[in-house]
Amino acid sequence: xxxxxxxxxxxxxxxxxxxxxxxxxxxxxxxxxxxxxxxxxxxxxxxxxxxxxxxxxxxxxxxxxxxxxxxxxxxxxxxxxxxxxxxxxxxxxxxxxxxxxxxxxxxxxxxxxxxxxxxxxxxxxxxxxxxxxxxxxxxxxxxxxxxxxxxxxxxxxxxxxxxxxxxxxxxxxxxxxxxxxxxxxxxxxxxxxxxxxxxxxxxxxxxxxxxxxxxxxxxxxxxxxxxxxxxxxxxxxxxxxxxxxxxxxxxxxxxxxxxxxxxxxxxxxxxxxxxxxxxxxxxxxxxxxxxxxxxxxxxxxxxxxxxxxxxxxxxxxxxxxxxxxxxxxxxxxxxxxxxxxxxxxxxxxxxxxxxxxxxxxxxxxxxxxxxxxxxxxxxxxxxxxxxxxxxxxxxxxxxxxxxxxxxxxxxxxxxxxxxxxxxxxxxxxxxxxxxxxxxxxxxxxxxxxxxxxxxxxxxxxxxxxxxxxxxxxxxxxxxxxxxxxxxxxxxxxxx
Length: 495
Ligand SMILES: Cc1cc2nc3c(=O)[nH]c(=O)nc-3n(C[C@H](O)[C@H](O)[C@H](O)COP(=O)(O)OP(=O)(O)OC[C@H]3O[C@@H](n4cnc5c(N)ncnc54)[C@H](O)[C@@H]3O)c2cc1C
Known about the structure:
Elements: E1 3-7, H1 11-23, E2 26-31, E3 42-45, E4 48-51, H2 61-69, H3 74-77, E5 80-83, E6 87-90, E7 96-99, H4 103-114, H5 116-141, H6 155-163, H7 170-177, H8 181-186, H9 206-214, E8 217-220, H10 227-238, E9 242-245, E10 249-254, E11 260-265, E12 270-272, E13 275-278, H11 282-289, E14 307-316, E15 326-329, H12 335-344, E16 353-356, E17 370-379, H13 389-406, E18 412-419, H14 421-426, E19 459-461, H15 472-489
Parallel strand pairs: 1-2, 1-13, 2-9, 6-15, 13-19
Antiparallel strand pairs: 3-4, 5-8, 6-7, 10-11, 11-12, 14-17, 14-18, 15-16, 16-17
Helix pairs in contact: 1-2, 1-10, 1-15, 4-5, 5-9
């Protein structure tokens, strides 16, 4: 049995740990925090339980994969249910569209709110999304590339994508299919998850729209989103992985032959290993853990995704219908909002916001008669941003509070915590964004920083700044891809 160290017990590290343990390696996971999850973290305040990061959970099959690798199953490890509606979308004219699960239900909702022409267009739209997804997932997302030439490995798939208009722009592709501008926003705002404006994102990224609006949004039956990393960590541990929480890695060690040899901890202890999978935010990993190596060229002129402010509020009262678990409030301005976020580095003039109330589905996350509220407002990252967060933070908090009051949410605050881009930076995230490198074409697929450090054989990367990208589904795949790299590097040495 050989030793593999995984640095970081976020979702990428946990996925890698499960797959590596399943391969038969002896795996040690080291994380500076006291609990697993990383960005999918846990904040407990005055009897309220907050998820600190992802709230929109899609593609549960991708959680099932690492669990299966260590003999577990999703149904037992993290029982969860689909949210219907997935979102309540609120528009500036006071109208609402519910994103319903199931083709017929959503078609009927579009018919009710936008009319029969758009309802009919939904059929073709779903077909287009599904076809894109079925091509992209196996050929371009869930696979390792050794070079951009790998893109040509399946010319048929690339030609199909071209025919489907995947290399056009997402905004235009959605506008072409629907008349109602509200649907343009509803089916293209997901470009933001890839760090881009819909008119800048390739139509390829419609797969994100497929993942949430069509395939469904889920939520664990109990424990909130943090139940996901907890279950993955427990499954890996049960299968033999060792977890060392509360320990920071300060260096990736090399043998005299320049190969990965282990890690050094802040305590000075050295842990030896045959391979290291590092899931620390990539630019920070190079700066702190491999300081003598120049970062890859793809990090020379990085374009980072916008960041976000998250306000966690424990409030008295419970929301009434039609408030849903996830509520998106679209601002009146659209193009201007993306311009501010991405180009001029200012706050959105008329912000769009996500209000998530997990206690709608799991009241145990707050004391009796109370709710946990999570308000997310996109904000410029610190590379382009001109916001002084020290002075802006209290003003932002007051605006978000007023917003809850104005929109009928319970807003008598019992406890709270505001997280700004400055806080993300202080937690070690490059450019103060938790959403990593934007998915521009030069930062996508084989052009994104790779998961192999060729100069130090045995060092592999996973996480949102490497392939395939950002978000829970992608980093779970990322951990698996890194584990495949280890299997190739240590052939025949696993059980
Ligand atoms: C506010 C917010 C909202 C989001 N919303 C969504 C959403 O709705 N849906 C979605 O799919 N995705 C969402 N995401 C994105 C998603 O959460 C991330 O892409 C994903 O969780 C990143 O996982 P990771 O394992 O790559 O990184 P991380 O979770 O950051 O894991 C890295 C780990 O490394 C540890 N570490 C760092 N340095 C060291 C060191 N020196 N020594 C030891 N350990 C170290 C950290 O403690 C951490 O646990 C959101 C993220 C945030 C923050």
